[in-house]
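#lab-general

N.A. 3:47 PM
ok so I finally got the sequence cleaned up, no stray characters, all 172 residues accounted for. can someone with queue access submit it? mine expired

B.Y. 3:52 PM
send it over

N.A. 3:53 PM
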Amino acid sequence: MSNTRTRFRWWWGWKAESIEHWLEAQEADGWNLERAGGIGIFFTFRRGERRRMAYRVDYQTDLRDDYVQLFEDAGWSLVGQGSGWYYWRQAYDDVKPEIYTDVESLISRNRRQMRILGILLAMQILLMNTVYSRADSPFTGILALIHFTVTAALGFAIFRFIQANRRLRAGI
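B.Y. 4:20 PM
back already:
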């Protein structure tokens, strides 16, 4: 049996707690995270001791110089980063530590992601003219399908972030 393994795990930014819980369960089973890579969906683990680790993911688009230092001073260790996501962990005994202690901070994290998605959506809409102006191309149908799929996925993601923020405000 190998002492290391790499796992693919897809997750959604509006449900960051799902990846946090999964990483915590891996640690509890004795698979210690070594790194997160590949835009934050590939995880490399090493077989080790079972540990109680709190994992938190944070999304940053405009990283301040003191960002990492603030987390390290609070006892967090940076395990990986990619595409704006930062993976933090901290051992604990009784009370699981948090990086977001108020709802507005979580909403702010979601808004940072929505801004990036909004920019990508705007780019997709601007590309519409280019895709559909090539009506004489044999690939117009394929391009239109790809364009529609990407545009719909971006719109859906923005909608889900809006829903998540509404749930946070409502305390659900």
